[in-house]
Each structure stands twice: as structure tokens, then as C-alpha cells.
Amino acid sequence: AVAAGVPGLLVRVDDGTGPARTLVRQSVSSAADHRLRVTDTFDMGSNTKTLTAVLVLQLVEQGRVGLDDPIERWLPGALPDGEAVTVRMLLQHTSGLADYAYDPSVLATMTGLQEVPPTAEELLAIGADQPLLFPPGQGWSYSNSGYSALGLLLEQVTGRTFAELVELRIARPLGLRRTYVPTTAPDLDGNRRLAHGYEPDAERLAPLLPEGTPEGFGFVGPQRAGLVDVTGNDRSWVGAAGGVVSTAADWARIDQALMAGELVPAHLLAQMKDTVAQEGPAGEGRRYGLGLEQVSTPCGPVWGHDGALPGYRSDTYTDASGERTVVVLTTTHFSLLLDPVMAEAQEQAVTAAVCVMLGEPVPAAAQ
């Protein structure tokens, strides 16, 4: 993967038979900025959705929220069809709510060009202002907007921020000292162990951008060999849709605890694992539950999620028992969308790690 152009790759595999095995590789140019270590913190992106779902289901267990409650009950007027959209639909991406991700203002925030980040309410409004993709409950489409709504629901019901809830209900009970939700842009002087993330410069990024995007539109940050170091850009605005920072070891503990029933009881874990097929080319071999994916791999099915933010991609999986875990963290995202050779190499690295986790022979293509 690194030979194909990935700036850095961090792998942690626990096959349940002994100490976890770890591997770190990075390019010479990225090592000049920051020597990647397996203990580094990392923006986990949409892996956050698993934690958001856990927090919602904890409220369900307490009788404070119902999975089939209309979101209108908790966020009046936030969605045009709020009476028809349920909490369960938002968790499972079956609400029909459009995604905010490629809205021009959100793109400007992602790149670091817009210094004042949008609020969760503003992000939800961007999705809500677009027509529903399908009638609620009658399709599947990934929606970050829906998880912004869930974050607002959590705060409305508990009176605490999403960052506080992650700390009090997940990180602290599991003894996770390096898993948190940032509320400001990274303090690179105060947090030197945050892995550095990189994205293509404006010229290389252009093919991914919507028609009409101004020429020269690109990521803000120091440039090196056609890449931009985006580590210092603010990603705290992503919140319940993708804002958690963690480490490989911490996330493995989260997956283990989830499957062991430490975060939600068995009957609600069963709800998380009640899946529907993901639609579209990216959904092949994937099914989505409540903030949790089941993924078919060459070596068998696994549970978990993936995530991406500018500079960071994360793939985290476990077996059904939680006794085996794998975490693959990659220090770029948009580069993978632009370069099929690089993307294939990264995907095969994930496949190889999953197969080692499951104790199965690694396919020839992934060796």
C-alpha cells in the first residue's frame, strides 16, 4: 500500500490466541513530518456512528427513547416529514434523508477554507432542505445528516453534549484514556501523538469535486510532494456522525466490549445486528444494522464499520464473539478515491489483516 502511494498505514490484529500483533509502515516524506506509531491517536470518522448508536440504545434500555419514535417527537420541525421518520430509520440509513457531505459549504469546511464550522443543526438543515431520496423506510442511502439528528436527539434527551456522553458512558467505563470527541481544532503543539493525515493538492483533487467548483479549490495546510498535510484542520464539527478520536488498541476494546454485551444488553445488540442490504456499488457484500455493518470478506463475515475524514481512513472489524479484532488506519482518504491502484492496495491490506484475524489463509491477491 505504501509503495502504491499511501502516506502511512497502521495495522493491529488480535486473533484471540495471544498478544495483538501490530505493524506500521509509512512513506519517507510523511515520516519527515511525524513518525507514525501504533499508539498514535487517529480521527475515526464514521466508526463514530457505532458509538452514537450505542448511546441511543442505552437510552432505549432506560425507557427514555423508543426506536420507533418519530424524530418529530424529539426535534420538532427539524425534518419536513419528521412524523414518518423514526429513530430506527436514522440509525439504519433508511430514512431517505439526503447526505450533507458534498454540499459546497460542507466541502469548504472539510478543506479548511471555511474557518467557522457549521453546527449540528446547520448540518441537519442542509440534508433536510433537499428532497427525500425515497419515502421513509422504503430504501437505503447513507446519510451523515441522519446521524447529526441523532446527536441532537442525544443532547436533547440527556442535557449533555455528545462529547460528554462518549466520555461518561463509553470511554470512562471501558478505561479508554485516549478516546474522546474534540471540541476544537487539533492543538498540534499539545497533542504530538495525533497521526498526521494527508490529501491531494488542488490540482489532483479537482476530478472529485462537483461541477462548478472554483478552480484551485483545495485543502488548506503545508504542502509536500503533491500532498497537503491536513492534520491541523478542524474536524470537531462532525460530531455524532464522525467526530471521535481514538487509537487502534482503544477501538479494539470497544468492539470487544460491544460484542460481549458490556455496552448494550444482548437484546439490543441483536437489534444492532438486524441488517438490511446496502444499496449501490459501494454496498456490495455489506449489510447495515443500527450503526453496525456486517461485511462479507474472502475469509468470512465480520462486524464493524469503516470511516473517513480528510486525511484519515479507518477500517475496524471483529468476529461475532468480539474475541478477535482488527484495526487498519490509513493516513489519507481522498487519495484512495482518486487512485485505483492505491485503493486496491489498501483494500488488500485490510483483507489480509481480516484473514489473519480469523485464522484463515490470506488470499494470493492480498499477499
Characterization of this structure:
The protein is an alpha+beta fold and 367 residues long. The chain is built from twelve helices and 13 strands. The protein has helices at 28-33, 48-61, 87-92, 104-111, 120-128, 144-158, 162-174, 202-205, 248-259, 266-272, 334-338, 340-358; strands at 8-14, 21-26, 42-43, 198-200, 223-224, 227-229, 245-246, 276-277, 286-288, 293-297, 300-309, 312-318, 325-330. The strands form three sheets. It has an eight-stranded antiparallel β-sheet, with helices on both faces. The protein has a three-stranded antiparallel β-sheet with strand order 4-6-5. A two-stranded antiparallel ribbon has the order 3-7. Strand 8 and strand 9 form a beta hairpin. The radius of gyration is 19 Å and the shape is globular. 49% of the residues are buried. The model has no long low-confidence stretch (mean pLDDT 95).
Structure characteristics:
367 residues; alpha+beta; 8-stranded antiparallel beta sheet; 3-stranded antiparallel beta sheet; 12 helices; 13 strands; 16% strand; globular
Secondary structure elements and their pairing?
Elements: E1 8-14, E2 21-26, H1 28-33, E3 42-43, H2 48-61, H3 87-92, H4 104-111, H5 120-128, H6 144-158, H7 162-174, E4 198-200, H8 202-205, E5 223-224, E6 227-229, E7 245-246, H9 248-259, H10 266-272, E8 276-277, E9 286-288, E10 293-297, E11 300-309, E12 312-318, E13 325-330, H11 334-338, H12 340-358
Antiparallel strand pairs: 1-2, 1-13, 3-7, 4-6, 5-6, 8-9, 9-10, 10-11, 11-12, 12-13
